[in-house]
Write a structure and sequence with these properties.
The chain has 10 helices and no strands. The protein is mainly α.
Length: about 200
């Protein structure tokens, strides 16, 4: 895409995100998105496709933005265990307070919950890919030894984070990022970094 096309697409995604947060996905139309973005409906369709395509594009962009920020923060830690713990705690706490997610869960739980659970394969894959890259960066930084099973370890981490995001409260009193960090350092980091027998 050219720069102008990219700018136009970003404006459309920005407009869609704002409308989804304001009134929800169900009440937002392509015409609403076009009007807010300052383009016509045909441009929205040509750039992104149908309304469901726009929804998927908004979700994917938000996920990539969040994960880039999370892993960028985690990669500043000086040990592999701390990188795992920071990534886990940051993404869970960030998504607990995410504006769009919380708004949609209030406005449209019947459609938003499946996108976070049974239909969340795409988001899981994005998160696993980012986690694998974080672990491979730790290998390049001489914080972890090379291993063939980092995708599996990454999926363990992502699946656990996903569970905490979707169902925040359970037996453990994990109420904030500090609690999540302590939990991840004690139980998750040893598995993901290979210090626990379950890591093989």
């Amino acid at each position: 895409m050219t720069t102008s096309t990219t700018d136009s697409t970003e404006r459309i995604l920005d407009a869609a995100l704002a409308l989804f947060e304001d009134v929800g996905i169900r009440r937002t139309t392509l015409e609403d998105i076009a009007r807010r973005a300052g383009v016509d409906r045909v441009t929205v369709y040509r750039r992104l496709g149908s309304k469901s395509d726009v929804v998927e594009a908004v979700n994917a962009r938000e996920a990539r933005r969040i994960f880039a920020d999370v892993f960028g923060t985690a990669n500043k830690a000086s040990t592999a265990a701390d990188r795992v713990a920071v990534a886990f705690a940051t993404v869970v706490s960030r998504l607990w307070s995410h504006g769009l997610i919380n708004r949609l869960l209030r406005l449209e739980p019947e459609s938003s919950l499946p996108k976070m659970t049974t239909d969340a394969t795409g988001l899981i894959r994005i998160a696993v890919a980012g986690t694998v890259e974080m672990l491979e960066q730790a290998v390049r930084d001489n914080l972890l030894p090379p291993a063939d099973d980092y995708p599996a370890r990454a999926e363990v981490m992502v699946r656990l984070a996903h569970s905490f995001i979707v169902t925040p409260r359970g037996h453990l009193p994990l109420d904030d990022e500090a609690d999540l960090l302590d939990f991840a350092r004690a139980y998750l980091a040893p598995i993901v970094t290979g210090a626990h027998p379950l890591a093989g």
